[in-house]
């Protein structure tokens, strides 16, 4: 949230999804697409209703029946290369337009939202799985985080392994593989440690996260930034008072970045 992500409560996120089977925030993505413009013969145009519908169909039809990795690769191509749609222009010509799902040139134009305890119905109706944290960009779930609390001696590594195990369980055919078709980054975090990977990465290839591009001073500034009153209210609105008090106390003093993140 300190880096510009808006918090969505589980209830708010579910309302935007429409059901526990749905994963995309269709209206968020629709709004992003409606604001985008393309040039045709020197004139700026918005996507038509049909053009937006074509993009939504492409990002919804990911071909999971062909396998999780091929579906994930298809989503990756849409994210990196855009989605090509056909528009009928005012002069009667049919025009091909490649529509970006993410704005790489001006990142501030992307809508960043984070939610927790994302309840997703399992394939075959076998109950639900609830990943701890999910990050949405323009209504598309691009990162999934399992956050485990360390308990006892040497527990961090055990809890990291548990988080990885949950990711792998969730990706199985009777789990929630559709979420992992969209996700481009997976994290397991506990205490001061974190491991990351991509969809269908075996557990032995998950890597420790070490930040190499952001200076330590910049990381410290992010960690110690204050939430706005609005952010604070949104984050704690549905939490017990003792949780709010704990974090208020924690944030009243300087917080140090972990060695893993700051190295």
Q: If you had to describe this structure to a student in words, what would you say it looks like?
A:
With 263 residues, the protein is α+β, with helices and mostly antiparallel strands. The chain is built from 10 helices and 13 strands. The model has no long low-confidence stretch (mean pLDDT 92). The chain is globular.
Q: Which whole number gives the mean pLDDT?
A: 92
Order of helices and strands: EHHEEHHEEEEEEEHHEEEHHHH
Alpha-carbon distance between the two ends? 22 Å
State the oligomer.
Answer: single chain
Q: How large, in whole angstroms, is the Cα Rg?
A: 20 Å
What portion of residues belong to β-strands? Answer: 15-25%
What form results from the Cα inertia axes?
globular
Q: Show unreliable segments.
A: none
- What's the tally of helices? 10
Helix share of residues?
25-40%
- Main beta sheet strand tally, sense and closure: 7 strands, mixed
Summarize the structure.
The chain is built from ten helices and 13 strands.
Pick out its properties:
263 residues; two-stranded antiparallel sheet; 10 helices; globular
Chain-wise SSE layout:
Blueprint: E1 6-8, H1 10-17, H2 26-35, E2 37-40, E3 43-46, H3 49-60, H4 68-81, E4 83-88, E5 94-99, E6 112-116, E7 120-121, E8 128-129, E9 133-137, E10 140-147, H5 155-170, H6 177-182, E11 185-190, E12 193-197, E13 207-208, H7 216-223, H8 229-236, H9 241-251, H10 259-262
Parallel strand pairs: 1-6, 10-11
Antiparallel strand pairs: 2-3, 4-5, 6-9, 7-8, 9-10, 11-12, 12-13
């Amino acid at each position: 949230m300190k880096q510009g992500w808006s918090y969505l409560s589980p209830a708010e996120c579910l309302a935007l999804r429409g059901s526990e089977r749905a994963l995309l925030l269709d209206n968020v993505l629709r709004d992003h697409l409606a604001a985008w413009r393309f040039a045709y013969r020197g004139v700026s145009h918005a996507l038509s209703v049909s053009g937006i519908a074509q993009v939504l169909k492409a990002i919804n039809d990911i071909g999971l029946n062909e396998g999780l990795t091929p579906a994930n690769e298809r989503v990756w191509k849409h994210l990196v290369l855009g989605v090509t749609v056909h528009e009928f222009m005012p002069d009667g010509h049919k025009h091909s337009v490649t529509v970006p799902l993410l704005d790489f040139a001006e990142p501030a134009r992307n809508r960043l939202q984070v939610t927790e305890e994302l309840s997703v119905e399992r394939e075959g109706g076998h109950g639900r799985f609830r990943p701890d944290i999910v990050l949405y960009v323009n209504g598309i779930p691009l990162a999934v985080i399992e956050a485990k609390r360390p308990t006892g001696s040497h527990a961090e590594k055990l809890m990291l392994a548990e988080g990885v195990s949950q990711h792998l369980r969730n990706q199985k055919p009777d789990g929630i593989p559709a979420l992992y078709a969209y996700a481009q980054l997976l994290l397991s975090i506990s205490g001061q440690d974190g491991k990351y990977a991509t969809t269908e990465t075996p557990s032995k290839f998950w890597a420790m996260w070490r930040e190499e591009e952001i200076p330590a001073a910049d990381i410290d500034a992010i960690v110690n930034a204050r939430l706005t009153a609005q952010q604070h209210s949104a984050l704690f609105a549905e939490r017990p008072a003792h949780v709010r008090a704990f974090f208020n106390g924690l944030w009243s003093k300087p917080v140090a970045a972990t060695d893993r993140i700051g190295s």
